[in-house]
């Protein structure tokens, strides 16, 4: 029976040609081998058991050809290699036909091991073919048309889910769908159901889906629920928890064992279990939960204790400036050393603020600010003195510094040294605080009212409620336009 198909006919034709050539070749080489070995009285039966194990013989299965079964779909073909005494190959490819019955020893152990390995690899390729072999044997095309097997792998399903279930707009849903494809719709639905059970609002779920759509491919019970439970166990309220995770949803992608759990435990220890302070710290910088504590936080803690920073100040640093504690240890150590060198005491709260300011500035930026204040009339000592009183003066933009100092020097005739002694006024808003209160102060001074005894700096640093009570409401009957002037300017 002749198998159907062009490939089978060509393979069968080539097989019979190879078999015929092999028969002739084997007959000639067998004769030569027998003649060469007869002088030494060597026969096939004289080989030792060990030598017999090192023989490789051909096993041809003619029944496959008779039945018309192609070799790649029939029984396994046994491939082998025969060698004569000089080591020349008698046959390379496995051919089909009656067994020649010739058994020839390999010339050496090395070649025996080499071609035994090659034999195993050849058989393995037949039993476990790769993609190229499968295409050759089974006529598989190289390219296939990909058809979604289910609606869950369809991009339209992703967009539809994000729009209908998560509340995303069409454009945002398409952009989010481009970031991920949901493998299983059950995962997406279970994650959505889990978030709702923990009190996330629809708007918060929308924010999470737009920022981290990949979260909806996670296993809700195994990957997401344990991380949320970690914050619940730590004492976070439902409001604090949902606000935090909707603002930083990438927290849910971090490792629970290596990152979230040890960092949160350390944070709660430093803050003496203050949940509100912990929530505030994470809200200011979520990186405090995402970095390896052994590489950043713990070395920086050791630096603070080496300089004698109290536990209370360390807690303030974690609460007010958590970004600073997550800096690279070398940079953090240099910042602490510089703050101490400028005269700030580790026991004071200003030391913590100084660390936060210095750690956020490069050397070039620091030098540029020093030159700026110098050009406006401050000496280097006055600049450092101003930093010690209000470290935030080094974070202000050049434009703001020039505007505020120009206003005080022009309208109030303040000297630069006076501003250096009260640097906090540089941080105040010129439009919303300084100018409106200056307008009220100017009216009171013109009318000769008692509050003119108060300095403008005192009025400027009052809280809004105190200023309204002592400077506006108190004289509203005498100067009715006072409140109007204050509102217009503010």
What does this protein structure show overall?
With 490 residues, the protein is an all-alpha fold. It has 4 domains: 6-138, no CATH class; 156-253, no CATH class; 254-360, no CATH class; 428-489, no CATH class. 61% of the residues lie in helices and 2% in strands. The protein has helices spanning 6-38, 49-53, 62-67, 109-127, 131-138, 155-164, 170-177, 185-197, 202-211, 220-233, 238-247, 256-270, 275-284, 287-290, 297-306, 311-320, 322-325, 329-341, 349-359, 363-375, 380-389, 398-411, 416-421, 430-447, 456-461, 464-472, 481-489, and strands at residues 55-57, 82-83, 89-91, 103-105. The strands form 2 sheets. Strands 1-4 form a two-stranded antiparallel ribbon. Strand 2 (82-83) and strand 3 (89-91) form a beta hairpin. The protein is extended, with a radius of gyration of 42 Å. The N and C termini lie far apart (101 Å). Residues 39-107 and 137-153 have low confidence and may be disordered.
